[in-house]
């Protein structure tokens, strides 16, 4: 331990708190195994509890005397933390797949390959939804639950769950490090607890609405959890399309949209009970406008290309557009058969994503708003006389030139990094996937991973080359963390924090 730097000790101490989340999740999941008589899953879950608890407590108490956490530490903790919980979260998949009672089932057997188990865990905790389970209905109920539980926790964030018991300056830094900035209350811990109460309420309502629409109770529980988490894991191989139910799709449309709205907006909505709260918020307004405008374009494209009856084309286009823009990832259509233009429209929707402060992925609408308004602001400054003050308004507030420039630089930098990593992922994956997939297919799949969506044109598959699986895992990881924590981790490894 003496060989470790003070910075490493701080990171390891706080990492010890995060990994204990997996032990709690696995312990609670034992109840599911008991309820369904899947006793073969109890051992693997308890092993996960034991390993996570030993690692977590060992790190926390072993380095409890480490110094104060800074923002740089928080960013590294976030990056390493998401990898760590994914590694531990892969254990139930891997260990259950090696049980003789279920190991012969093809879908389960795929998880006996460690990389497939890791892929599923990364996809789960990042609330992405790309999967190695070709027929999830063949999975034991315990693994179906474990997939949904990971996405439900990952939708809000592992760090956000941990912060329910952490107070002080460290809580603020870890909260910010997980790409969250909104505050409902002055205290971060109070904000986090309010977020979880809202999340629990919406999850319960989603489950009841799905059941009322005809979905079986077990499926309703799983889809209610992954829907509000904008995750996308399903208990059916055909996702929502396998039910063939218009009623279920109509229920899920508002559930997905609610998941893509900021928790701060939900708090206001629940307090004031006035729908106009949604329209008054800039991000929410943009989301609604994009939902309507993009849907019109996609529906027109599909009507011309697929030549479906008007209502059927509108139905499929509506669900997939909402699923893409909210980054949920539920599917009702075979997107692989759609036109290149339709795929590119969905790719754009996935990249834009939902509101900051929600469970959605993508680059977040607030950054799009900043860039669009920033462009208008810069053009107005260019054509205005030097002595005229041109205001930059955002969220009902006027920013100074320095504040406006800072917000623009931050948004542009993230967009640049996001684009560079997307291009890199596409370039590598093009050399690894079968030749039947076009450039737009590969772009779609990588964007889906990096935006934490989960829609697929069929590229994600257990037989995918190992390097391709790792590339998609990397894309999901950096997308969930919004890149900066990953860059800080890499910098610390090669240069250090000083």
Structure explained in plain terms:
This protein has helices at residues 6-35, 42-62, 71-89, 91-97, 106-109, 114-125, 141-156, 158-162, 169-177, 188-212, 217-228, 246-259, 263-272, 276-280, 282-305, 310-325, 340-352, 365-383, 401-430, 439-450, 466-481, 484-494; strands spanning 392-394, 397-399. With 498 residues, the chain is mostly helical. The chain has a two-stranded antiparallel ribbon. Helix 2 (42-62) runs antiparallel to helix 4 (91-97) and helix 3 packs across helix 6 (114-125).
Key words describing this protein structure:
2 strands; mainly alpha; two-stranded antiparallel ribbon; 498 residues; 66% helix; globular; single chain
Short overview:
This protein is mostly helical and 498 residues long. 66% of the residues lie in helices and 1% in strands.
> Which residue ranges are poorly predicted, with pLDDT under 50 across at least 5 consecutive positions?
none
- Percent of residues in helices comes to 55-70%
Mean pLDDT: 90
Q: How much of the sequence is in beta strands?
A: under 5%
Terminal Cα span: 20 Å
Structure class: mainly alpha
User: How many β strands by DSSP?
Assistant: 2
Strand order of the largest sheet: 1-2
Q: Sheet bearing the most strands, described?
A: 2 strands, antiparallel
Question: Order of helices and strands, N to C?
Answer: HHHHHHHHHHHHHHHHHHEEHHHH
Radius of gyration, taken over Cα atoms and rounded to an integer in Å: 22 Å
SS element count, helices: 22
Shape: globular
């Amino acid at each position: 331990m003496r060989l470790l730097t003070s910075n490493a000790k701080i990171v390891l101490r706080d990492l010890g708190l995060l990994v204990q989340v997996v032990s709690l999740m696995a312990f609670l999941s034992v109840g599911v195994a008991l309820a369904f008589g899947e006793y073969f899953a109890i051992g693997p879950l308890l092993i996960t509890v034991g390993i996570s608890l030993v690692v977590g407590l060992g790190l926390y108490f072993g380095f409890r005397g480490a110094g104060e956490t800074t923002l740089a530490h928080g960013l590294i903790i976030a990056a390493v933390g998401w990898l760590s919980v994914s590694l531990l979260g892969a254990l139930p998949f891997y260990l259950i797949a090696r049980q003789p009672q279920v190991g012969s089932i093809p879908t389960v057997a795929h998880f006996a390959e460690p990389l497939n188990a890791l892929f599923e865990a990364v996809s789960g905790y990042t609330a992405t939804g790309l999967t190695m389970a070709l027929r999830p209905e063949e999975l034991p109920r315990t693994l179906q639950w474990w997939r949904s539980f990971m996405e439900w926790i990952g939708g809000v964030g592992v760090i956000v769950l941990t912060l329910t018991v952490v107070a002080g300056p460290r809580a603020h830094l870890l909260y910010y490090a997980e790409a969250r900035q909104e505050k409902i209350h002055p205290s971060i811990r109070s904000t986090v607890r309010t977020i979880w109460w809202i999340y629990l309420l919406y999850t319960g309502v989603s489950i009841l609405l799905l059941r009322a629409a005809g979905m079986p109770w077990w499926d309703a529980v799983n889809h209610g959890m992954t829907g509000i988490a904008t995750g996308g894991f399903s208990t059916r191989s055909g996702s929502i399309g396998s039910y063939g139910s218009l009623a279920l799709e109509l229920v899920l449309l508002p559930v997905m949209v609610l998941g893509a709205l900021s928790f701060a907006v939900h708090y206001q909505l629940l307090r004031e009970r006035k729908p106009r709260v949604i329209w008054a918020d800039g991000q929410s307004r943009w989301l609604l406008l994009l939902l309507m405008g993009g849907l019109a374009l996609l529906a027109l494209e599909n009507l011309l290309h697929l030549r479906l009856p008007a209502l059927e084309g509108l139905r499929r286009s509506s669900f997939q557009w909402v699923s893409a823009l909210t980054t949920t990832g539920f599917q009702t259509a075979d997107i692989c058969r759609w036109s290149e233009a339709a795929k590119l429209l969905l790719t754009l929707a996935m990249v834009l994503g939902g509101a900051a402060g929600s469970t959605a992925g993508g680059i977040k609408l607030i950054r799009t708003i900043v860039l669009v308004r920033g462009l208008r602001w810069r053009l107005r400054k260019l054509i205005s006389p030097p002595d005229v003050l041109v205001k930059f308004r955002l969220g009902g507030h006027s920013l100074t030139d320095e504040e406006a420039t800072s917000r623009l630089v931050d948004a542009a930098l993230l967009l640049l990094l996001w684009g560079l990593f997307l291009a890199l992922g596409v370039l590598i994956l093009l050399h690894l996937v079968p030749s039947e997939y076009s450039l737009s297919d590969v772009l779609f799949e990588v964007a889906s991973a990096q935006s934490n969506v989960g829609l697929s044109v069929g590229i994600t598959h257990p037989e995918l080359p190992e390097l391709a699986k790792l590339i998609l895992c990397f894309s999901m990881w950096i997308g969930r963390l919004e890149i900066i924590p990953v860059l800080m981790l890499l910098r610390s490894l090669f240069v250090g924090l000083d």
